[in-house]
Amino acid sequence: MLGNFEVEQCSFSKLRQFHERVLSFSDRFVKIHCKHCVSESISALIVIGLILSFLLAMVCTYFHVFPIYQPAVRTYTVHESDDLVAKCNIFYGKWIPDESYPLYNASQCPFAERGFDCVVNGRRDRGYQKWRWQPKNCEIPRFNVQEILGKLHGKRIVFVGDSLSRTQWESMICLLMQGVQDKRNVYEINGNKITKRIRFLGVYFSSYNLRIDFYRSVFLVQPGSAPRHAPKRVKSTVKLDKLDDMSKEWIDSDFLIFNSGHWWTPTKLFDMGRYFQAGRSLKLGMGIASAFRTALETWVSWVESSVNRNRTRVFFRTFESSHWIGRNRNSCKVTRRPWLKTKGRDHSRISDIIIDVVKKMTTPVTVLHVTPMGAFRSDAHVGTWSDKQSVADCSHWCLPGVPDTWNEILLSMMLSKDGVTVQ
After folding, report:
1. Which DSSP string do the residues of 247-258 spell out, in sequence order?
2. Which of 277, 280, 404, 422 has its CA 20 to 30 Å from the CA of residue 388?
3. Residue 379 designated active-site
4. How confident is the model over 100-109, as pLDDT tens digits?
5. Is 252 a catalytic residue?
6. Of residues 217, 396, 404, 412, which has the active-site annotation?
């Protein structure tokens, strides 16, 4: 209303000024021309004509002002509506330098694998550790370890997936250990050393009755041996219609975080003689994308039928951007700084399938769409600074590093009152 009044007041002020100028002009006009007029009647006609011209000018001015004023109201309304319904997508933004990072020292965390501790393995520049993710239209809550540990008291968190899932699992443990005074109160429940060869690892925070588990399941569905009478090239199979037999161990949890994708490649499948199977049928001609979607649909059926949605919150992290280069993507060059552009790596066919499948589910599942944010981080990979320095690695990440940001976002979502902080 105030805006309308101001527009109207402005318009009538201009009209009043116009009216005064016309009257002044008419007075001068009459005085000048009356000297040459033959009679007073001619002067009267001139004045009437000027008055009619003034009235016509007022009408024209009104119709000229009114169309400009009308859209201004509509534009304001739309803009206000957009502000009210706009939602932040926390996975779109940029990396900015931040000297308060890293949040921990991997060398002082017994649950960080030697293969991911790039500094210990000889990396001299530590700039890759000092970048913070800044979403476009919102903020990630600053990491408050004491508050988080207090809210996670008595909870069980389960990570399921491949080695990138194990990296995130290790990152979360190292982050949370910063709030534990006596580090002896944090231990692997079976006394196992952290290694990629063990299918199950569980770390217990005894002071908080908090357990964080990792289950290695690279396909989420069951691996199998080659069926009888299968072609010689078939060495093993991936049973697309059967979820991993360890899935019964995942159910009793408060938070379930899945990932998959890095083993769904020709080199991990066909080059190793591993083909797809559904029931008793080999699917020798099935493509990887179709097979991955079928496996995810098997996972969906399990979630819908087995997960207690009143207790368990489910997350699925999308494909993590890698930075292999070269014609065959077999060369690894780790940069000193993040890329300024994503160079097309902010999209992934695997990620697109995950998003498409999840949005059709009835059980709420939060997608951690990390693909775009990781696309910039060509500087943060293990490279040649692993425990096997002869083999370059542009898939896995150094710790501390990018997986810590995944966990900052994940923890803020886990602890939000409504279950999801952003979309």
Report:
1. GGGTSS-SEEEE
2. 404
3. no
4. 999 999 999 9
5. no
6. 396
